[in-house]
Amino acid sequence: MRQNVYLDGDPGGPWMGHALAEVGCIWQGPVHSEVITRAPGEIARFLRWLKAHGEPGIEAVEAAAVKAQVVEIREVAGFGQSGSAVGIFGPDREPATDRDIDTAVRRLGYARRDLHEAMAGLPPDALDWQPPARLSIHDAARPALRPAAPKRTIRKNLEHICRAQVFYLSRVLGVDAAQGALPEPWPKDTFACLEWVVGRSVEALQALTRQQRSGLFQAADPAEDWTARKMLRRFVEHEREHAEVVRRAVELRNAPTSGMHPAGRSPAPSK
Q: Could you tell me whether strands 67-75 and 26-29 are parallel, antiparallel, or unpaired per DSSP bridges?
């Protein structure tokens, strides 16, 4: 199996790999050489993830069967910081088809399922538990996404997912149209808001016009080029990233020996 690989990242790291033929297939590393080395294994891992979610027409393969070829590398200053620009690649510039939209929406649903599974059984106060920044969450068993140490509470991560989706829509639709697709006030309940936003976002994606599907849009704040295909993949990639961040935050909170303290409370000082 041959897969083209695309990289974007800050010259000093971090870097992200993308297998754009399989929307949502991403992995991260501190240097681009590591991302390149890990490409076959991460692509194989992603195909297993798709198969586990029932994606039609997917066959799981071993990493040794994947022949990954790097075809584009984009340096993006500040990459990895919240709100920073991200790369645009050759395939992003192709017009988005009905199939592209259907695939992205379906895989967004898989990532949302992962997000809900990660939070299953959490008590209400767990949403506001603050992960201690000193704890690393690099996970050798699940290295594909390797998010930085959780800096937000789970609730803040969920709110960030909602804000990111209206941000992505604004890159192609424009700010006013994106806000019109998700008008305020949003539902106050965190989980109700999460589902309302993704539902309205999917409706907007499915209603993209021919011009929006094929155009190149110069967005501001940050200044970068966007297309419908770039927007579609970022919906899926970002959801997968934050499903993993939330999963790891829950894991850290539940760890019996990690010094966790609920609802953001710090341990009492020793006397």
A: unpaired
Same domain, 25 and 46: yes
DSSP assignment of 152-211 equals S-HHHHHHHHHHHHHHHHHHHH-HHHHHHHSPSSPPSSHHHHHHHHHHHHHHHHHT--HH
> How would you label 233-255 residue by residue, b for 16+ Cβ within 10 Å and e otherwise?
bbbbbbbbbbbbbbbbbbebbee
* H or E segment to which residue 218 belongs: strand 217-219
pLDDT digits (tens, 9 = 90+) for 141-191: 344 544 445 578 999 999 999 999 999 999 999 999 999 999 999 999 999
pLDDT digits (tens, 9 = 90+) for 47-91: 999 999 999 999 989 999 999 999 999 999 999 888 899 999 999
Is residue 271 one of the residues assigned to a domain? Answer: no
Is residue 5 left, alpha or beta, with left meaning phi > 0 and alpha meaning psi from -120 to 50?
A: beta
72 to each of 19, 37, 87, how far by Cα in Å? 11, 15, 10
21 and 108, same domain (yes or no): no
> Cα(first)–Cα(last) distance of the chain, in Å?
62
Examine the fold and report which residue of 87, 111, 130 is the final residue of a domain before the chain moves on. Answer: 87
User: How many angstroms separate the CA atoms of 271 and 268, rounded?
Assistant: 9
Q: Which of 141, 156, 122 is nearest to 245 (CA)?
A: 156
CA 50, distance to chain mean position in Å, is 15
Does 109 lie in the same domain as 71?
A: no
Q: Residue 172: give its domain's CATH number.
A: 1.20.120.450
